[in-house]
């Protein structure tokens, strides 16, 4: 075995060992706990149960409001549904969402665009920014509606990318100028 082979094998083994170590305080977000933490909507369970659980406990509707939770209906590809907080309403067909576990498993995305593509303009179907596309893509997702917490959104919990269990957590913000949208939202 040559020195080069030995060095390469040693480096590979060391990298694999380091990759398997996950610190005890690693932050890995699912969409429901993250939405609960930032929106003030105190519903527990999988995202597909939130819309039903909100009935009688929270106001629900089909108009986006800052701090409201957008409840996605389950689909074949998204069996547990999804929940995301509206961080800003841009206009009657576009909002910014802050959510977890969408583009990257366990990752958090702040202020990514979602567009109402429903025929009636009732937010029953949306396209959402996806990191691997760097845009909206072609997939559309059914939405139950919005759950209103009746309070201002909480500060977004800090995420520490350096302690993520499966590599760095993606924290994304989208440059909205690529969609022809001007906003005063600070990065």
Task: Write structural notes for this entry.
The protein has 187 residues and is an alpha+beta fold. It is built from 3 helices and 8 strands, in the order αααββββββββ. The chain has helices at residues 3-20, 31-39, 50-54; strands at residues 59-61, 69-72, 82-91, 94-100, 108-116, 125-128, 141-148, 171-172. Strands 2-3-4-5-6-7 form a 6-stranded antiparallel β-barrel. A hairpin with an 8-residue loop joins β5 (108-116) and β6 (125-128). The longest helix is centred in the first third of the chain and has 18 residues, at 3-20. The radius of gyration is 19 Å and the shape is globular.
Itemize the secondary structure elements and their pairings:
Blueprint: H1 3-20, H2 31-39, H3 50-54, E1 59-61, E2 69-72, E3 82-91, E4 94-100, E5 108-116, E6 125-128, E7 141-148, E8 171-172
Parallel strand pairs: 5-8
Antiparallel strand pairs: 1-7, 2-3, 2-7, 3-4, 4-5, 5-6, 6-7
Low-confidence stretches: 16-25, 159-172, 183-187
Overall pLDDT confidence: 80
The class by helix and strand makeup works out as alpha+beta
What is the tally of helical segments? 3
The major pleated sheet works out as: 6 strands, antiparallel, barrel
Number of strands: 8
Distance between the termini: 52 Å
Rg from Cα: 19 Å
């Amino acid at each position: 075995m040559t020195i080069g082979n030995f060095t390469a094998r040693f480096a590979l083994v060391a990298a694999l060992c380091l990759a398997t170590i996950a610190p005890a305080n690693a932050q890995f977000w699912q969409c429901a706990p993250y939405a609960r933490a930032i929106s003030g909507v105190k519903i527990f369970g999988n995202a597909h149960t939130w819309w039903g659980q909100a009935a009688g406990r929270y106001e629900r509707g089909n108009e986006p409001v800052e701090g409201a939770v957008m409840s996605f209906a389950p689909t074949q590809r998204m069996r547990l549904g999804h929940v995301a907080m509206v961080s800003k309403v841009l206009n009657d067909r576009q909002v910014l969402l802050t959510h977890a576990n969408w583009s990257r498993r366990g990752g958090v995305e702040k202020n990514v665009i979602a567009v109402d593509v429903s025929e009636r303009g009732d937010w029953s179907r949306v396209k959402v920014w996806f990191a691997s596309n760097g845009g909206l893509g072609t997939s559309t997702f059914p939405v139950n509606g919005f759950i209103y917490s009746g309070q201002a959104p909480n500060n977004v919990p800090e995420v520490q990318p350096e302690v993520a269990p499966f590599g760095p957590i993606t924290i994304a913000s989208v440059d909205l100028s690529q969609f022809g949208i001007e906003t005063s939202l600070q990065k």
